[in-house]
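TICKET #2291
ISSUE: user wants both folds in one file
ATTACHMENT 1:
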Amino acid sequence: MRKVSRQMDAAFALEVLDKAPYVTVSMTRTNGTPYGLPLSLARTDEKTFYFHCALEGDKLDCIAHHPTVFLSAVTKCAPTVGPKDGSFTLQFKSATAVGKAELVTDREEKIAGLRAICERFLPHHMDAFDDAIARSLDHTAVVRITLTEPPVGKRKQYDKQGEEMKYGRME
């Protein structure tokens, strides 16, 4: 990271990944070209994320060929004028991580992964979860991403006095 003063710890990075409405997941196609797309991920522990998709397609082809993936997320993104120098800038919180993606084949883990996704994005509709599983489990793929190294967070944010909060300083 070029500006080490903006680096944040793994806990901060996980919080950004949890709060982002989607996380861009970058993969490698079978022909070696990059492939990235925003996905709705749900995290179940310090290293494990899940997403769902169709039973076939580019994502699963990429994962089968090259399971290493790169995650990227941004929250609290706001254009601003620097309070001290009047420069045009951007306040943000971001996170990146590297992991290994695998198709989940165990039925109970598939259900647990889908439950985590539903609890994150539709927590007030969990009463319909069992019926949805009965209708769609056999037509849905679930992918587990296991982080292979700690995630990295980065932030540019100003305090109330207009000073940039560097070196992990919190509000």
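ATTACHMENT 2:
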Amino acid sequence: MMPVRLLIVEDDRKIAEIQRRFIERMEMVELCGIAHTLADARDQADILEPDLILLDVYFPDGNGLDLLRELRAANSRSDVILITAAKEVDTLRDALRGGVFDYILKPLVFERLHEAIERYRSHLDKLSALEQLGQSEVDALLPRATSAPANTGRQRLPKGIDGLTLDKVRDLLPQRSRWNAEDMGAEMGASRTTARRYLEYLVGTGELSAEVAYGSVGRPERQYLPKA
């Protein structure tokens, strides 16, 4: 599994540094560059070809939405998450028309960014595993799949549980008779904390049972067993 290559485009150097530190805390994410102007962002996006760009809207030398439109017009393979203080509905509409993967309002918090990038990584995993599309696969990949209305019969997921990542965990479960959070995190390319959150959710739904086991040094460890 290849890491997500990420470019930060943010004119405020302090905010860019916060984003950089957040990214360093995430697994399977590689920071390939930081741009503080749109001109620099254009060059870096063209040369580095990142998988994902964290893009602000307001810059001294222009508007980040213009860069988004340029990327789409050039058929760039880079996806974009907008991180902005812009709360205008028209800005959101323009961003959605430009095909942003996510839209995050400032002030940025780690958990929201981590959730967005985890969902992006799961999205890439789903795409790479597909050989042919059916309607169900398309529905699972579209953003609306994780926020379907209650009357569609799809289960509403709690905050912090992403549908695509949950499907990935479910796909991994049959590979072992029992799991711990560290092993699951290694398999899904996420932190132990993230893996534990999904495993505990499946305990709550009755899909897993949990028990405490003691290792060779006597340290208790919670283990998860798929139910027959």
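RESOLUTION: both attachments delivered.
EXTRA DETAIL ON ATTACHMENT 2: Residues 4-131 form a domain with the Rossmann fold fold (CATH 3.40.50.2300).
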